[in-house]
Amino acid sequence: MAERVRHILGLSGGKDSAALAVLMHKRVPEMEYFFCDTHKELPETYEYLNRLEARLGIKITRLNPERGFDYWLDIKNGFLPSPNIRWCTELLKIQPIEAWIGDDHAVSYVGIRADENRAGYISTQPNIRPVYPFKEEGLVKADIFRILDESGVGVPSYYKWRSRSGCFFCFFQRKYEWIRLADEHPVLFWKAVAYEEEHRDGRTFTWSQGESLRAMLDRRDEIIASHEAAQARQLLKQANRPLAEVLAAALDEEDDDVGCLACHL
Questions:
Q1: Domain edges within the chain
Q2: Most buried residue, 143, 198, 221, 230, by CB count within 10 Å?
């Protein structure tokens, strides 16, 4: 008797993994969907996952039901993660996925597009084989927006002001996104400030390299003006792009650091 192979698709709360779910849910009826919950996601992310479940008639398994970010921060004695030391990715994304799969053989469907030069999260476990449907079918960013629009799923509502999924204090946020977090979710913004100022490991820590959130807020008008100028330049280049795409392009112009490949899909 042939060994059962599991088919799995991780959802980040972003557009690419959501479009992949739209594309694959009828092709692979046995697909298992999962989301690694850090317990520090934006409210819009949870709303988007619920929308996907309702629209597609799928169930998304939430990993980390008990041990979220604060649990591991305590284990780490208050040592906050950074772009150079991403313990959050290892403990809240990679390990939970591999524990959930266990020794089962699995095909992991990854939402990397044909117009991207990256591989995404690739497990070192020999029983997990990644596949890239978008790359195989030559689908690019415009196709992703089309798939989501035609399905009625649409894009996450945070795309009005933020270009990536991830924790509300993600260190890959651009300065404009931090300012908009303060506007959209002031309680979460000040929680992020508290992490900066009240951690107990002895470092001088800032989520955004070289500038505290308080200092950034003091430069609010300057940061917004810089972003609006970048967005205007992007609109001149191609006026018919979706607003979310223009926002992302403007943010990339200001800061094109690649986000965490296990979080931002």
A1: 5-160, 175-254
A2: 230
- 82: which residues sit within 8 A by CB, 6+ positions away? 171, 205
- Residue 186: left if φ>0, alpha if ψ -120 to 50, beta else—which one? alpha
Instruction: Name residue 164's amino acid.
Output: R
Sheet of 5-10, strand order: 60-63, 32-36, 5-10, 105-109, 128-131
Measured in degrees and rounded to the nearest 5, phi and psi for residue 117 equal -105, 65
| pLDDT tens per residue across span 18-39 | 999 999 999 999 999 999 999 9
Decide if domain 5-160 falls under CATH 3.40.50.620: yes
CA–CA distance, 112 with 72 (Å, rounded to integer): 29
What is the C-alpha to C-alpha distance for residues 243 and 249, in angstroms, rounded to an integer?
A: 10
Question: What's the sign of the alpha-carbon dihedral 255, 260, 263, 265?
Answer: positive
CA 22 – CA 56 distance, rounded (Å): 7
Counting as low any pLDDT under 50, the low residues of the chain are 256, 258-259, 261, 264
